[in-house]
Write a structure and sequence with these properties.
2 copies of one chain form a homodimer.
Chain A: H1 2-28, E1 31-38, H2 44-54, E2 60-66, H3 71-78, E3 82-87, H4 96-102, E4 112-117, E5 134-140, H5 147-150, H6 152-157, E6 160-164, H7 176-186, E7 192-194, H8 203-222
Parallel strand pairs in A: 1-4, 1-5, 2-3, 2-4, 5-6, 6-7
């Protein structure tokens, strides 16, 4: 067992070093990088579409992570968003090495916001940094209000929590108070944005927050 | 990297050996074992409650897997179902060693059906056997119809696919034909049961299928 653990530690440490280099290189280009986490079917793609549309003239890119398929990349491309696909072939999360391989395929010469849509999985992606400024967590109403209690790390690591599919609140049991308490138990500071990707409700506040976060964190990154 | 791979292979092989022993021991007791997979919030617990109630006098047990919390175990216990909790503390799937540790806590002296609710994750739990006769996959309508294309292994390994939360079909976009084609692309044989855990619709067919599967597979297990 100790051999397994030492290999794992070395994987984390190699990944962290590479992620720090990727992050530094993106920040130098004035690019704010957002690692988007969420379970399968929480609505990460539909959330990103709303956010990107809300950002208007801000230049955006998407790195799309999936085990297989390029369904979401084709959706982004059809909307005019520059997007590239990582297929992990089985791996349950993206890592810094995959990011290093894929980033040269994007034209990153302007300042802007790079979104990385991680594998749909509330567990493993939370363990890894892949060059991002922040992690954004997308949950959804039909998943149920107990998720922060069951999947604590993703909530701990999130700079903001997005509660998607609020249009389904009339049709499912969801205890918003229990959910909010769960988020707070893991994370005292992250704002919670209740949104509906299908109606667009709630996105203006999220977009404003994201723009402020981008300005603030890039200022820190670029401070002499 | 080769060191990492050899450790992984050894983990799989040790796990498989232990899982086979657990499986043989359960089969000898005339216990049919079902490893229940599904993403976070697909409704694994509510599906199991409906199935267990549908099974009537059949003796059932639940091993409940979560990273943290015992919310679902308390639900099962409150309904009179014998249930025990595994908290992995971070691991994204159950393994045979965890099963070996927990099973002595259950009174397994009667024939019956043992359900193991795995960690909510459409990726990693599909890679491991933990002593089961079959894997059962729970998906849900609000997760979207593209899941079989994006998370192929869970669909490949499932003996049956349950499409839960069909009561939400009027309120979300879901292409049933695209979903069914995706399931068939991964798995030519698994039946698909459309159910609603909130209304109970669709469960009688699933329960009948499960009883037939249990009889058939235990006959194979117990053949001289």
């Amino acid at each position: 067992m100790s051999r397994t653990i030492s290999v794992r530690e070395s994987i984390y440490s190699e990944n962290d070093t590479l992620a720090a280099a990727i992050h530094a290189s993106l920040a130098k280009k004035n690019i704010f990088t957002v690692n988007v986490l969420g379970g399968a079917g929480a609505g990460k793609t539909s959330t990103l579409i709303n956010v990107i549309q809300g950002l208007g003239d801000v230049k955006t890119w998407v790195v799309e992570g999936d085990i297989e398929s390029d369904i979401d990349t084709r959706t982004f491309l059809s909307l005019g968003v520059e997007a590239v696909q990582i297929n992990t072939g089985g791996d349950c999360h993206l890592n810094a090495s995959m990011m290093q391989t894929i980033l040269p395929l994007l034209d990153l010469r302007k300042p802007g916001i790079l979104f990385i849509e991680n594998i749909g999985n509330l567990v493993c992606p939370a363990e890894f940094v892949i060059g991002e400024n922040i992690k954004l967590l997308v949950c959804s109403v039909p998943e149920g209000s107990d998720k922060p209690w069951k999947y604590p790390l993703a909530f701990k690591r999130a700079a903001a929590v997005i509660l998607n599919k609020t249009d389904l609140l009339p049709y499912v049991k969801f205890d918003r108070d229990f959910f909010d308490k769960g988020v707070r138990a893991q994370n005292p500071d992250a704002p919670i944005f209740a949104v509906s990707s299908s109606s667009g409700a709630g996105f203006p506040s999220l977009v404003s927050w994201l723009q402020a976060a981008a300005a603030e964190r890039l200022a820190v990154d670029l401070a002499p």
